[in-house]
Every structure is written in C-alpha cells, then in structure tokens.
Amino acid sequence: VVAVQRGVDEAAREQLVGGVRPAGDVRAHRLGVDAARRGDGVEHVRVEPPRTVHFDFLGKDSMRYNNSVEVPPDVYANFARFLANKKPTDDVFDRLTTSTLNAHLKSYMDGLTAKVFRTYNASITLEQQLLKEPPAAAASVDEKVYYYNRANRDVAILCNHQRTVSKQHAGTLEKQQARLDAFRAELKWLKRARAHFKKGGAVADVPGKVPASATSGKPVSVPRTADACDKRIAKCEQSVHSTEIRIAQMDDLKEVALGTAKINYMDPRITVAYATRVELPIEKLFPRTLLKKFPWALDTPGDWRYFDGAKDDNIGTPD
Hints:
Blueprint: H1 2-13, E1 44-48, E2 52-58, E3 64-70, H2 73-83, H3 98-106, H4 114-132, H5 141-158, H6 169-198, H7 226-252, H8 259-264, H9 268-277, H10 288-293
Antiparallel strand pairs: 1-2, 2-3
C-alpha cells in the first residue's frame, strides 16, 4: 500500500504543485496534495468517473485551492481506493510521511525531495513565459518589468500563491485613473498649444482652459514656445504610458502574491538572464534582500537556460 500511495503521489505531482506534510499535520490548515482529505469541509478530494479527481482544500496562507484534474486510469482507481471507507478527517495518503517520501525520491536522484517538484514547475513555467514574446531592449523599463511580473503571476497561479484583494485597492485604482485622466488632458492641451505657437500665436492667447496638474491639482504652467511644448509633451507622454502600465499591473496582480515563488521556488538565474537579455537593471526585479540572498546568480549570462527544452529557434533574445 505504501508503494502504491507513493506512486500516486508522484503521478499527482506531474500535474499539481503541492507541498507534502506528515499525516495528521494540519498547522494553519495549510494542506498539500498528500494531506488533502475527503469530507464535507473545504479540505477534501473527490473522484468523478471516468477519470476526474477534484481537489478542494486550503493551501498556503489559508488560500483555497480548487481544481479538477483528469488523471490516468490507474491513478484514478487508486485515488478512489484511498478515499473509500474513510472518515472525513482521515488522510488520503495515510501511509506516507515527508521523511519516507523524500527518502524514496532520493533513491532516484541525490537531493531530490518533494519540494523539488514545485521548484522545477515554478522555474520552467517562468522561463517558458519569459521566452514567449520578450520586450525589445528599446522598450521602456516599465514595459520590461510588467512583462516579467506577468510571467511571475503565472507561476504564482500555478503554485496557488493567492492573496486577498486589499480594501484599499479600489480607492488606489481610482486615484491612479484620475492621474491618468489628468495627464491625458494636459497632453491634449499641450498639443493644441504647440500648434498655436507654430502659427505665431501669443502666450496670452493659448487656446483652451489650462488643465490641472496630475500631481498637485493646481493649473499647470503655460509653455512659451513650440520647443517648450515639445519637451513637455515628451515628458507627459511618458507619464501617460507609465500610469497606464501601473493601472494594468494593479488589476492583473491584485489577487496573486509574487514574492513567495520569487524567494523560494523560482531559480534566480532565470530572472537574471532575462534582465540581461532585455538590458534591464536587476535591481528593478530583485529587492536588496534578494540581491544579498542570490549573489551566486548575478553573473548569469542572457543565453543561460534553466531547461534546454525551453529554448526554441523562434524565441529568445529580443531585437
């Protein structure tokens, strides 16, 4: 029975990213695949013919994991067997412990543990996402960071690293939208002012109401020449672009926690290689604490690959 449970556990890890805990360990109700239990509560596993297994339990940081997976027939049959004739509080994998599972895994490869499955899945997912359509080296810093964060988001979703949307989110988003509207209004006014000056118009006759500043709320200063308008327009266009990306990120990332996978599961060399390829300072992706934690990864070249199979002739370094 132990060998069968071990085999089903390993098969499940090919499709699910879950931690393993000793039987009966319910600390903070953070249950992985191995500790998932059947019952009327939220922590259970349910089978549905012909080959579907439903998982519904509280994962890391007590965030709900709810997923349905189609598995091979033998895996399905064994899940049904492990669930049969058990109390709601019994463990599905009642013959496994962390130590016995890891001891078996190490018999295949030195250093192989249950956590390695999560590390591998997190790392290969990040690398594949970063190689799809990377921004060009000429793209803005905001675009490069946003592209990376979206890839990191996919890893967080895979690992079930969710977070509750903060109560301040809606208000903060509304403020950013107001800033964006103000920048756009200023940009439109500046373009009219430039056209006015190119026609020989006077400063006192600049058309339209002077818009309010996006930062202070007070009327912006009136430029005196077309060249001055050009400089202000370039700066304002950058502000519009940056604010648009900030708003998009706030919406895309509001329900995921990016830091957990970045700190614990994703190979840092993947992040450094991406930053090198798109000419982005690594400090934009790694805070000082991670720079101190991963000094050994900071010299990784841009063509380094975590998994050679992730590299394709049609994807890779940007233009």
